[in-house]
Amino acid sequence: MEIPELVTPRLRLRAPCGADFPVYRDFYADAEASRFYGGPLPANRAWTKLASDLGHWRLRGYGMWSIERRDRPGMVGSCGLVWPEGWPRSELTWWIMPEARRQGIAREASLAAIDHALASLGWTQVETHMDDANIAARRLAESLGGRVFAREAFPDGLMRDVFALSGLAAQTG
């Protein structure tokens, strides 16, 4: 399966690859940066995350992209659409390296992923959910026009608000 590349004014969302491993390793080793994403994790478990992101594309036909700025090389995070086995629904998710945060990267990448889901995958709605303590993710979901439409229990034992993110392709900023 060929993973589509998405390009925005500032970003390139591309297929994950083995060269991304140092970024995965560093992100998941950082306890504060990765606390809402299952971290901190040792290097071998970060490798498993990268492998899982690649495999998700093959199994579901969609998945996570590696995010790069167009004006300089190097991965700064990941964003995409996932639906892990056993979870009640799909979700838009992202993680950004600490030094690249608060620059609008997660929002710009998320809008590209949402547009892809609506235009190319035929989805009518994109959803996201997060740990209640993840205030930054909640704010991003709200900035994407997200509205809470459900509160559900997830396999990790947490209750989460589920946000609907539909019709966002028309948003410009």
From TrEMBL:
Query: What InterPro entries does this protein map onto?
Result: Acyl_CoA_acyltransferase, GNAT_dom, N-acetyltransferase
Keyword annotations from UniProtKB, A to Z: Transferase
Q: Please list the residue ranges annotated as the N-acetyltransferase domain.
A: 9-164
- Its domain of life reads Bacteria
Q: Name one GO molecular function term.
A: acyltransferase activity, transferring groups other than amino-acyl groups
**Protein's name in the database:** N-acetyltransferase
